[in-house]
Structures are given as C-alpha cells and as structure tokens.
Amino acid sequence: MGGESEKWVLMVTAQTPTNIAVIKYWGKRDEKLILPINDSISVTLDPDHLCTTTTVAVSPGFDQDKMWLNGKEISLLGGRFQSCLRELRSRACDFEDEKRGIKIKKADWGKLNLHIASYNNFPTAAGLASSAAGLACFVFALAKLMNLKEDHGQLSAIARQGSGSACRSLYGGFVKWIMGKEENGSDSIAVQLADEKHWDDLVIVIAVVSARQKETSSTSGMQDSCKTSMLIQHRAKEVVPKRVIQMEEAIEKRDFSSFARLACADSNQFHAVCLDTSPPIFYMNDTSHKIISCVEKWNRSEESPQVAYTFDAGPNAVMIARNRKTAALLLQRLLFHFPPHSDTDLNSYVIGDKSILQDVG
Ligand code: ADP
Ligand code: DP6
Ligand code: CO
C-alpha cells in the first residue's frame, strides 16, 4: 500500500439530489436490512436547489473513520453507516495511481481509515428527504473512491441499508423502489422508470413551511405506525399495490390528472396512517393544511387538476405543476396567500426541475 512516502490523501467529491415520493414508503418488514412493506415511486429533484455534496478521503495518515455533517462531527458508529461501510469495503477493488505512486490492494481497504465531510444545501431532518440525498451521496462517493464495479441498481441496495428512501436517489427522473421478496434483501432495489427528460413540462415548487428539525424521525415514526396502526396494513396490502400500477401508467402516458389524483391521495393516506398511530404523529401543521385546501380548491375550479401536492414526514409542501404557466400561477397564488415571513412560519419557496446524479470529480 502507498507510495514512497505514506503522506498521500485520495479524495472524491460527489453531489446527489434528494427525491420526493409520490407513492410513499412507510413501514419496514426488516429493520436491519431496511426492507419495506410496499413498493414506492419518487421523483428525483434538481440538485441545484436540494442536494447533498459529500467529499470522501482516504489516507494512511488517518487513525480512525470520521464524519462531519454540515460542519459538525457526527458518529459513524450507528448501525446504518456501518452496514454501508461493510458492504462497500467488501466490494472495493484494487486502485493504482502510477504518477503519485499510490497502490491500494483490495484487502487494504479494510485497514485504511476514511474521512467524510457532507453538506446539505437544504434543511436537514425537516421532511425534505435529507436522509435520502445524504446516504445516497455517502454510498455513491465512497463507491467511486473505492473503485467499485457495481452498477447503480446494486449501489441502490447498499444505499437502502443507510436509509430506505436513499436507494431512489441513485437515479434521476422517476424511480421505483421494488420491495422485493428475498429475505436477504438482494431484490429490494431501485429502478429508473423514466429519465429526467421524460415529461419535462412538470415544474416542482417547494414551500419551506418550516426548516426546523422534526420531533419524530422517519425511522421511529414508521416503527410506531407498524406497531400500532391498523390502517397501515390495509394501505400496504390493498391500496399501494394498485396505486403503483396506476402511477407507473400515469407517468408513462404523461397523464397529469391521474398523476395528481394518485400523488395527493397517497400523501393524504400516509398522513392518515400517522394520525392512526399511537401516540398520533403530526407531521403537517396549519400552514400545510391551508396549502392543501388552496390547491384542492383551485383544482376543483378547473376542468382537470393543475397542481399535485405531496408532503413527506414534515410540514413542507412539495407541489408539482402541470407546466410552466401553471407554475407561475401557482407561485402567484402562494405568494398572495402565504407570503414568506408572515404570521405563518413559512420562510421560502424553491422552484426546480427533475434532474440527475452528478459526479463532480
Ligand atoms: P429527512 O426527512 O430529512 O430525511 P430523517 O428523519 O429521515 O429526515 O433523517 C434525518 C437524518 O438523516 C439526520 O438526522 C442524519 O442522521 C441523516 N442525514 C441527513 N443528511 C445527511 C448527510 N448529508 N449525510 C449523512 N447523513 C445524513
Ligand atoms: C415519508 O427513508 O427517511 O419520506 O429508511 O428509516 O431511513 P429510513 O426512513 P426514510 O423514510 C422516508 C419516508 C417518507 C416517504 C418516502 O420517502 O417514500
Ligand atoms: Co428521511
């Protein structure tokens, strides 16, 4: 291992966008492997606005694995980071940089320590899927550094073990996480349904209703739902399988009316499961509810829906407008009814597009 001096550092930086589910994942059948109780479908967002940037470095000079998130050191000891690191190290390949005289053999990767610095350009743990962008970027950047030969599907199965929703951020465009049947999780992977160029009329508008960290993390929220909600089983077995088929068809045909109807209904049912949990979980707040009413009223006044809304495990609204003209009208309405920094705690709007994963060298 190493060149003449042992002072080298190898570094890779990657950028990964977040993704927002339009058919939600909520509930695990295996906590450790992170295997879900239903399939889910998401849209990967524009990395210019909502993304994680992670730099990973390896050096014989590092005496332990270390990680910083948004400038603060965090522990890598949690089971999830360790699951990803174990999977990545076991698949790492030989690396050679002749110019710098660096040679790392496959077996050396287990002995070398890593430093990882990650930054989210949007609120962390506030229901805008920071765990999705964060863990996908963690896996993607380390896979580059360690010279893994695995494709995005195989990497998605590793990212899944960091945070379930992260497996869907390995692809741009529209993505499906197939729940899989195998006990070892080998078939629980993400697949791309359509790339970011498909249906490029759509415009995504996000209302950052609150950037505060949520009280109940997604992980513990869905654990409580699985233990106490009766609705969750009905949802996973009877409702979602049908919706997934219909949503795939709506995406393929660019059928906005069906897309909006399904996305809104699924978001509302997910939050109904949260309310059906004991003690109930309130991810949405008054402003979120008022935004839903505003969009519903508008959609009902038109011949067909103009805007779809969906809320993850937090109060922030993700709205998908039919086209640019509708997006402009939506913003006009939102700014009129919900001006940022008014008596609500709404603080900004973000406008974006669907997009792709970036390797920034
Ligand atoms: P969110 O709705 O933002 O996904 P979660 O409760 O699912 O909220 O997850 C938040 C947790 O994800 C954070 O507390 C942190 O542990 C992890 N996380 C977020 N961003 C990153 C990142 N860039 N790198 C590593 N872990 C991250
Ligand atoms: C509401 O992927 O954050 O955003 O797997 O425990 O890390 P863990 O949970 P996470 O849950 C996401 C839930 C959701 C819906 C979704 O993204 O599908
Ligand atoms: Co999350």
UniProtKB/TrEMBL annotation:
Tell me the keywords, alphabetical order: ATP-binding, Isoprene biosynthesis, Lipid biosynthesis, Lipid metabolism, Lyase, Nucleotide-binding, Peroxisome, Steroid biosynthesis, Steroid metabolism, Sterol biosynthesis, Sterol metabolism
Q: Which GO terms describe its molecular function?
A: ATP binding; diphosphomevalonate decarboxylase activity
Location, primary (coarse class): other
Which principal EC class is assigned to this enzyme?
lyase
* InterPro entries named among the record's database cross-references: GHMP_kinase_C_sf, Mev_decarb, Mev_diP_decarb, MVD-like_N, Mvd1_C, Ribosomal_Su5_D2-typ_SF, Ribsml_uS5_D2-typ_fold_subgr
Occurrences of domain Diphosphomevalonate decarboxylase-like N-terminal (ranges): 17-190
What is known about its subunit structure? Homodimer.
Q: What is this protein called in UniProt?
A: Diphosphomevalonate decarboxylase
What is the organism of origin for this protein?
Answer: Heracleum sosnowskyi
Q: What is the lineage of its organism?
A: Eukaryota, Viridiplantae, Streptophyta, Embryophyta, Tracheophyta
